[in-house]
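(Deposited chain)
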Amino acid sequence: MVFELKMKKRPESVDAGTVKLVGTKVQHIVSETSKLLDNQQVYDSMAKAHNPYGDGKACVRIINFMKKIS
């Protein structure tokens, strides 16, 4: 989970719920971070959201494939 301060090139992560756009005001950043850390339901909603960039297992799959063909 990452908080974005300003919209970057990949808004799909915000749309998916894995990233939250919080702005640049310190008070708002602290408030949103506290919600994430203190509220299990808020944390789970971000932690279990669909990751639009994959499941993080591409490296393992590539290594296993390379072992098979070598």
